[in-house]
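INTERNAL AUDIT FORM
Audit reference: QA-55
Scope: verify that the stored structure record matches its stored sequence.
Auditor: D.O.
Record contents follow.
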Amino acid sequence: PSPPVDARIAALVEQLRDATPAGTAAVFGPTLEPATARWLAVGPGELLVSGAVVPAALAMALERPDAAVLAIDRGVSAVAADDCDVAVAHRARVIVVALDTTAADVTPARARGVPVVETASAAALAVAMTAALDRSGPTVIAVPPPAAGPSTAAV
């Protein structure tokens, strides 16, 4: 059996997969590895788990210039300034989905010319993904942590 996945993360990954065209690759951070079962890859090399999420996604995007690549991880460390510079210079279609992060946390990316969007709902995430997929360069989508409340069940 697969390890349990936080229901919020499972729903988010399924929404991201549904919003992206076939051939979109995804790189997950190690803490999100259980959620990779929710990403339905249709071709080889479209799913990777890496401790260096953004650099790995950037390399994939440079290798596959016609396809978008998602970098999905928790926290601000997912967005390094040097990676932003390379992504902007090469117009790499890397879409960084920074979980448990606010737009203020990723100000360095914005300062380097990367569009940053904060999404507080599934509808806002859908709009942000559509815009990111239409863009010919990098995007950071900040997904803030859930409001304090009852613990989210694992699925």
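Auditor finding: record pair retrieved intact. The chain has a mean pLDDT of 88.
Action required: none
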